[in-house]
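subagent[fold] <- orchestrator: predict structure for attached chain, return tokens only, no commentary.
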Amino acid sequence: MELNQLLSFTLVASSESFSKAAGMLHLTQPAVTRQIKCLEEELGQLLMERRGRSIVLTPAGAVFLEYAKQIINLVERAQEAIHQFTSSRGRIIIGAGTTTTIFRLPDILKHYHQSYPQIEVRIRNGDSELISRLVYENAVDLGLVTTINSSLHLVTRPLFTDRILLVAPPRFNRQQLTIAELESESLIQFRSGSGFRRFLDEHFQQHRFVPKVTMEMDSIEAIIRLVISGLGLAFLPEIAIAEDLATGQLNQINIADWSPMTRQTFLIYRQDKYLTWPIKAFFEQTKIK
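subagent[fold] -> orchestrator:
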């Protein structure tokens, strides 16, 4: 089994085309076809089959694809780890959610870049489930997540905690609501199925609160703008609305008999991860031990 065979296999799988994969690899289509055939003969399993003009993975191919990705990523990480001994430069790939990327990472990476300008930083966005998978596959070095996937057995370190606040537009004339009163107010929520929505739904159930959801959005910035416009109330992380609270564009609303809500963000990485000097430098910058 050769690395170029694995590269060909993953590219054919992602593009669903031998010709497209050949173009990306600067090879002929027959050469890519031979590589896949050799791989199948060695494994003793059919990995792909044609359906019309498309290439579809067999069940065995779908399983093997996950391992092939991990092998390729591991080779790339190994090359980077060795490269640090011959170069003062380095690279780190961080996976994080949109809210963390917008409101937390800029300040962290600003100081990181000031201390280590020779390190190239790459960011991958996604929810906690996707980021955890990318960490497990070695596609990213470190992940910042709010939900832990215990089945992947990753190293988990608490990084920071955010308060979750109920906010309203400035012309909203109440500073406190009962749970019953809040149920009659329009609530702008993150889309159903998102990690933050599940987090809120769990707290709503604990307080036997049934929200009147009038809008669902994917963007936290869109929700902030809609609340400022007077179209509803929203539960949002304090870090995302601190500036709007300070300038009076949003008001915090207290809820009677409602326990404070906080959400923890964790730093995750593989247990067998080789900690290159850029990773150790990131730990130092964020006070991770």
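orchestrator: received. Logging for downstream: The first strand starts at residue 48 and ends at 51. The CA atoms of residues 81 and 276 lie 6 Å apart.
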